[in-house]
């Protein structure tokens, strides 16, 4: 998620999904998502690089239900995020969704997903440039669309933000978490434990230049989408990372489990 290795942005990564399709099949992903859109209000935030960037929203059934935002597919070589969201939507009863006020960005970087590349077609990193006062990165085409909807996204994720990523170069799962505490608390542990049900955790020490302990990187403000919304006031935020060296279907299952743990908090 954090540090870009040389050429990491343009080398394609594509996996067999296990049902005969490939992880970069953008038309299939969109078609399968659209089949699950009943009960959701779908709006278009913009068309970065000519591709729709949709926002899904379920109105609150219970007044005061937590407003939660889940974002997937910032990096195109991390396809278990959007496919994991799809798996979660298929597995989840409407009553479970109705406990919260949920919003989704099912796929941010469509051109990257289709190519199997980390960055978008223009070579930009869609998960950087959100906090230029801390990190002088230029926002991507997708980032500009998201930044132009800052107030809306901040409101929709006021109770929590989850971004679903992968780390293609590692064998263990981990999670970046943001909490108003000095040490990892229940939110961090819940997401980490959900990943650990499906995958080994990343060893303690260092990951992408950040200290990691027991599968958690805590409160590292890095200019990402999730750090930005935490800085804007979200109660908690996180970025789950499933490991690209593990089988694709296990990564999809871990993503769906992390999403479930996030909304069941
Ligand atoms: Ni990523």
Return the string of H and E elements.
Answer: HEEEHHEHHHEEHEEEHEH
Q: List low-confidence stretches.
A: 1-7
Q: Radius of gyration from the CA trace?
A: 17 Å
Roughly what is the average pLDDT, rounded to an integer?
Answer: 95
Work out the helicity level.
25-40%
The major beta sheet can be summarized as:
8 strands, mixed
Taken as a percent bin, the fraction of beta residues is: 15-25%
The molecules bound to the chains, other than polymers, are:
nickel (II) ion
Tell me the strand order in the biggest sheet: 1-2-4-3-5-10-6-9
* Principal-axis shape: globular
User: Quick one: how many beta strands?
Assistant: 10
For the termini, the CA-CA separation is: 24 Å
Task: Tell me what you see in this structure.
With 265 residues, the chain is of the alpha/beta class. It is 30% helix and 19% strand. The protein has an eight-stranded mixed beta sheet with strand order 1-2-4-3-5-10-6-9, sandwiched between helices. Strands 7-8 form a two-stranded antiparallel sheet. The radius of gyration is 17 Å and the shape is globular. Mean pLDDT is 95; it is low at 1-7. Nickel (II) ion binds next to loops. Nickel (II) ion binds at residues 1, 74-75, 78, 127, 165.
């Amino acid at each position: 998620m954090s540090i870009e290795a040389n050429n990491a942005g343009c080398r394609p990564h594509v996996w067999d999904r296990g049902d005969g399709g490939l992880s970069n099949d953008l038309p299939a992903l969109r078609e399968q998502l659209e089949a699950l859109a009943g009960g959701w209000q779908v709006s278009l935030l913009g068309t970065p690089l000519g591709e729709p960037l949709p926002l899904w929203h379920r109105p609150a059934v219970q007044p005061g239900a937590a407003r939660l935002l889940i974002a997937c597919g910032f990096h195109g070589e991390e396809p278990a995020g959007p496919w994991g969201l799809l798996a979660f939507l298929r597995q989840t009863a409407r009553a479970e969704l109705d406990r919260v006020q949920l919003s989704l960005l099912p796929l941010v970087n469509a051109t990257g997903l289709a190519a199997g590349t980390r960055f978008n077609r223009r070579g930009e990193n869609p998960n950087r440039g959100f906090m230029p006062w801390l990190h002088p990165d230029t926002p991507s085409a997708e980032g500009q669309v998201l930044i132009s909807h800052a107030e809306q996204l901040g409101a929709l994720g006021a109770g929590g933000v989850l971004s679903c990523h992968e780390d293609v170069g590692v064998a263990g799962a981990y999670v970046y978490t943001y909490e108003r505490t000095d040490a990892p608390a229940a939110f961090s542990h819940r997401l980490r434990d959900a990943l650990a049900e499906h995958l080994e955790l990343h060893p303690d020490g260092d990951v992408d230049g950040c200290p990691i302990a027991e599968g958690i990187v805590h409160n590292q403000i890095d200019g990402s989408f999730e750090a930005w919304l935490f800085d804007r006031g979200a109660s908690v935020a996180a970025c789950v990372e499933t490991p690209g060296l593990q089988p694709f279907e296990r990564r999809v299952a871990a993503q769906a489990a992390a999403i479930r743990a996030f909304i069941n908090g």
